[in-house]
């Protein structure tokens, strides 16, 4: 089988310290489980050439395209606050980069394709469940309009992987605007490799922040730009109730995309302290802690840049970087309030880039109501559209008492955009999804695929969450929350 995908290799052309060249393990009996045709088209792949028979070979690593140059990328990272100087791709390989139909360069990487020099005793493999989980959650995130890595294919390998029991093995093909992490910078910083940090920073500017090219202080501008993208990203997560679950610095992409869907989950009833991850005992990565943790990670990123900021005195570099880090929280707040305005349908009244005190108060009060009622986060927002249509009953049914709610709704309606009620309702529906990958549905779909070989529930859920703002009668079940008991006992695990 001779396949060529028009791969480019700008990352592999960096210094050899950035990666190790590794061949993928050959899956004994690959079978295509899921293929993302629309993404393949976006990438400019000739789908005629990528029949299932070909795809399952290529996207399991069994057949290497002629122009692939598989590499495992080096990175370090703070895991739960503890620095590990060498992590790296222990179960992933970058095959190459594709310049897509829009001229955007995207990494094509296999995950679960066998051991690498970074495997640290792991088997380099992945199981069907976690592979499909990453597929589904990433596509849901994309459907929500939030920057994310995406899934091109999921292929079962025909072998079992040993976890707490034997599980069917699989390989995920991940598409990312790059796989460069805060931890990639830390890898070189920990080794005192200033020239390599500079090479990496220049590469990141070229690839992700081209507007900075030629800036008199490019690395300060890079820090500012990365901070802004992360603040925006975390605000967007919070507004849809997403909890990443393992925001280690090796799981934070400097591109500003969501990366590494492991123990992540969407919140059901609103509770800012929500944690689902089985290993997050202290709630470090709890819903409400995500902005603070993002800032903590960005401070680690800033530290790696200190030697290249161009100051003779390190104290000056620290002062400058600190001043930029101090912009994170105000910027996050701005993104978050702007997003909340949109979700409440109060964003088009004035075109100014300003959030009034009255709007802030309204948003704060709405969150106060959500917090005290623990109402289903997704449903509560979406029901505001029904209120705009004249029916408050569904929203009221989510709250134990309507005392504070009724006066809030009156105030909200007085502050709404100067549009017809129908248009307001439509705007709210465009800003608030009806379908998120609810935990009980995700588990149901994954266990059907993994244990019964039935991919249908996965495909149905994938279809719903890929187009999450449009209500479909056939997906009514997907809009309902899990039982309180299910959610109270729900735990997620790292996708190893
Ligand atoms: P993650 O939990 O995906 O953030 O992974 C943390 C680190 O563990 C990364 O360096 C991974 O490459 C590595 N890792 C996770 N699972 C495996 C595995 N099954 N085999 C080898 N390395 C792994
Ligand atoms: Mg990771």
Notes on the protein architecture:
Helix content is 42%, strand content 12%. With 496 residues, the chain is of the alpha+beta class. The chain has helices spanning 37-42, 52-58, 128-143, 182-190, 194-208, 218-240, 290-305, 314-325, 328-344, 357-373, 377-388, 393-396, 403-414, 421-431, 439-451, 456-466, 484-489, and strands spanning 19-21, 31-35, 71-73, 77-79, 82-84, 92-99, 105-111, 126-127, 150-162, 166-176, 242-243, 265-266. α3 (128-143) crosses α15 (439-451). Strands 2, 6, 7, 8, 9 and 10 form a six-stranded antiparallel sheet that branches. A two-stranded antiparallel ribbon has the order 1-3. It is globular. The protein has two domains: 16-179, no CATH class; 210-438 and 481-496, no CATH class. The two termini are 31 Å apart. The longest helix is centred in the middle third of the chain and has 23 residues, at 218-240. Magnesium ion binds at residues 250-251, 260.
């Amino acid at each position: 089988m001779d396949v060529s995908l028009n791969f480019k290799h700008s990352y592999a052309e960096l210094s050899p310290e950035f990666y190790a060249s590794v061949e993928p393990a050959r899956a004994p009996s690959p079978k295509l489980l899921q293929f993302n045709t629309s993404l393949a088209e976006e990438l400019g792949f000739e789908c005629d050439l990528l029949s299932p028979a070909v795809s399952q070979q290529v996207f399991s690593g069994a057949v290497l395209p002629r122009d692939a140059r598989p590499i495992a990328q080096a990175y370090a990272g703070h895991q739960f606050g503890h620095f590990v100087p060498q992590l790296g791709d222990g179960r992933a390989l970058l095959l190459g980069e594709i310049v897509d139909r829009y001229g955007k360069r995207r990494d094509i990487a296999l995950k679960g394709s066998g051991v690498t020099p970074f495997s640290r005793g792991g088997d380099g493999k992945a199981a069907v469940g976690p592979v499909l989980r990453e597929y589904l959650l990433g596509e849901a995130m994309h459907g929500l309009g939030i920057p994310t890595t995406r899934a091109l294919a999921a292929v079962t390998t025909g072998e079992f992987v040993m976890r707490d029991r034997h599980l069917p093995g699989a390989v995920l093909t991940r598409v990312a605007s790059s796989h460069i992490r805060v931890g990639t910078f830390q890898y070189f910083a920990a080794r005192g490799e200033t020239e390599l940090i500079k090479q990496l920073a220049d590469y990141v500017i070229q690839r992700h922040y081209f507007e900075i090219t030629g800036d008199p202080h490019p690395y300060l501008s890079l820090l500012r730009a990365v901070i802004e993208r992360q603040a925006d990203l975390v605000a967007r997560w919070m507004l849809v109730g997403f909890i990443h679950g393992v925001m280690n610095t090796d799981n934070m992409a400097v591109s500003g995309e969501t990366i590494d869907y492991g123990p992540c989950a969407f919140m059901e009833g609103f509770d800012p302290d929500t944690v689902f991850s089985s290993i997050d005992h202290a709630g470090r990565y709890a819903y409400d802690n995500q902005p603070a943790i993002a800032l903590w990670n960005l401070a680690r990123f800033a530290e790696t840049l200190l030697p290249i900021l161009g100051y003779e005195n390190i104290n000056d570099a620290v002062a400058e970087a600190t001043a930029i880090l101090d912009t994170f929280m105000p910027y996050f707040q701005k993104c978050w309030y702007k997003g909340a305005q949109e979700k409440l349908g109060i964003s088009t009244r004035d075109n100014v880039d300003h959030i009034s005190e009255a709007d802030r108060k309204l948003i704060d009060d709405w969150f106060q109501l959500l917090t005290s009622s623990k109402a289903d986060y997704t449903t509560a927002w979406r029901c505001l559209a029904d209120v705009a249509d004249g029916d408050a009953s569904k929203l009221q049914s989510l709250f134990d008492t309507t005392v504070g709610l009724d006066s809030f709704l009156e105030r909200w309606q007085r502050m709404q955009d100067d549009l017809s009620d129908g248009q307001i309702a439509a705007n709210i529906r465009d800003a608030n999804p009806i379908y998120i990958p609810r935990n009980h549905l995700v588990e149901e779909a994954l266990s059907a695929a993994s244990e019964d070989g039935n991919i249908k529930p996965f495909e149905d859920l994938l279809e719903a969450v890929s187009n999450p703002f449009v209500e479909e009668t056939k997906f009514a079940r997907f809009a309902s929350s899990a039982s309180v008991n299910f959610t109270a006992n729900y735990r997620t695990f790292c996708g190893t």
